[in-house]
Amino acid sequence: VVWCLGAMFAPMQAYPAEFAPPVRGWMSWERFTVEEDCTRFPDTCISERLILTMADAMKEEGLVDSGYTMIKLDEGVFMTRDEHGNLQADPQRFPRGIKYIADQLRSKGMKLGLYSDVGTATCCGLPALNISAVDDEWADAQLQRDAEMFVSLGMDYIMVDGCNPKGNDYKGMNVTYPKLGRALTAAAKKLGRPMPWYSCSWSDYVADMVCGGARKEPCLPLHYIAENCHSARMYSDIADTWDDSSGGNHGVKNIINFWTQNPQLAAFRNSFLRPSGPSRQVFYNDPDELMVGNPGLSQSEWEVQMGMWVMWAAPLIMSTEIRNGSLSKEAKAILLNKEVLSLADDTLGLQATQCKSPWCSNAPVLYGGRITVWNKTLADGSVAVALLNTGNFGGKGNPFGDFNTTFTAQAVGLNCGRPVPPAPSPTTYQHTKNAFQEAVPPSNIKCDANASLEQMTARCSADDKCASFSFSAGAGGCLKPCSLDTKWVNSTGIDGYIKAGACGSPLEGPSFRARDLFKHKDLGTFKSVFWQEVDESSIVLLRLTCLETSGVTFV
User: Fold this and answer.
1) Is pLDDT above 50 for 408?
2) Could you give the dihedral angle defined by the CA atoms of residues 548, 551, 554 and 555, in that order, rounded to the nearest 10 degrees?
3) Edge-to-edge strands of the sheet including 197-200?
4) Nearest-10 Cα torsion for 50, 51, 55, 61
5) Are the C-beta atoms of 482 and 361 separated by less than 8 Å?
6) 3-class SS at 478?
7) What is the distance between the alpha carbons of residues 113 and 196, in angstroms, rounded to a whole number?
8) What residues pair up with 516 in beta bridges, in sequence order?
9) Which DSSP letter does residue 290 get?
10) 260-281 burial, b if ≥16 CB within 10 A, otherwise e?
């Protein structure tokens, strides 16, 4: 969804069935918006000059060699339609036309991306595709001409927004976006060109305007969106800030919070990548542009965004100034980090999920943040893990305030060929009289002075985080959480009930090596458990590999 501040089935075979990594490149929007005045702003207006000089800078800085090959022109290109209804680029800012730019980019090993909208006008009020949600002979013919025009320009990527739908019919996007997919497929086939990468904002608009903000099926047709688009925006535009205090939730932290609160989006995407699932599709959830290199974030916050985006297997499309040495050495090191980029290019292609095991840190911290652990299995059987601290005292600034963050190998999916033990019966408990186990430091999940033994047993059995409970007849009891450290408490009249096999056996897990990918540093060998202090608004990005590799079969 684009904000301007001054400035039903597409054939799946049309999209590549083999693995294609998420697209990487640069786009004009966040840094340059829709500036049209090239007299006053010749270096930053949306123009041929901006794009070709940016392409040269990307080449010189090594970004193209690292896979950042797509350059996308956003709003501000197509200003009118001619007497035949054809979209026209501004002739002053694009004197040699858009195809000339595409040809120049291709000569540099790069690709052209463009922008449009399914509505009657773009978000900035410029001509759009005006797609009809019902059969309309004239409108459908115009759509096909537009699709052929885009493809004939040499376009390899198109991002399609959803402002101003015809008749204010947001539900109709479940028809208009697939219609455009079919038109692009037909145009590519007719002109003998590859199907362009099709990036949709469909899901964000329908979720907000039809589904009351919920990003869940059946109201939001997630699988249908994945069948028709290569990538899709699920949430708000990003801004060059950490925590958006304006209420728009455009900051990097706000977007991370959204993905933390909507785990179903990663689950649906990963479901069709698994070997046992349906035929593999090329589809990525898109959390929006990279702000790495822009002034609104600190270096540690740049690392947070880059780290989480590669963990999520997201498109990596930066929007920053690169020319004339503007890209700092710190930002360049982050963007070109081969070890970090390898997580984005991993052929298993999973989107990381938050570890919800009781053996992974997950707790609020100072300054409105949280420490969490994210993990995904990689194609070679190793596991990528992100230790994330989103606390922040003063917006942009030097991080301070370390918080211990921990996980076990088994909790993040590193089993090293060991069979995963079957879950024990949840009703099997070890009963100890006049003594119970307590977490260190002491904590309770919930206490109930009126609960019966049967109620306490049922509640502990239903809670994955419950390791045991204490109970006293007539006085109820307390559910006790899993903990890496426990102690026995002797208490006459209060018995303990320990759930068999609760929380796994963390100290019996495999040995592994851990490598810090941002620091290019081997951290050593660990037995099952890993912990490290993580600064506020910072990330530790790890790759774990097994020491015990003989006979390993990774699932």
Assistant:
1) yes
2) -140
3) 284-286, 231-233, 197-200, 155-161, 111-117, 70-72, 24-27, 316-318
4) 40
5) no
6) strand
7) 9
8) 521, 542
9) B
10) bebeebbebbbeebeeeeeeeb
CA-only gyration radius of the chain, Å: 26
Residue 237, Cα to own-chain centre: how many angstroms? 13
Other CB atoms within a 10 A radius of the CB of residue 346 amount to: 20
DSSP state of 416: T
Residue 476 structure tokens: 């109820």
pTM of structure: 0.84
Measured distance CA(168)–CA(190) in Å, rounded: 32
To the query of whether residue 161 is one of the catalytic residues in this protein, the response is: yes
For 235-250, write each residue's pLDDT tens digit. Answer: 989 999 999 877 778 9
Task: Tell me the β-bridge partners of 480.
Answer: 468
Tokens of 327: 């890209």
Catalytic member of 156, 161, 204, 288: 161
The one-letter amino acid at 307: G
Burial classification of residue 165, based on how many CB atoms lie within 10 Å of its CB (0-12 exposed, 13-18 middle, 19 or more buried): buried
Residue 163 near residue 3 (C-beta atoms within 8 A): no
pLDDT tens sequence across 172-228 = 999 999 999 999 999 999 999 999 999 999 999 999 999 999 999 999 999 999 999
Catalytic site residue 237?
yes
- The residues facing 27 across adjacent strands are 72
| Catalytic annotation, pick one of 237, 240, 286, 346 | 237
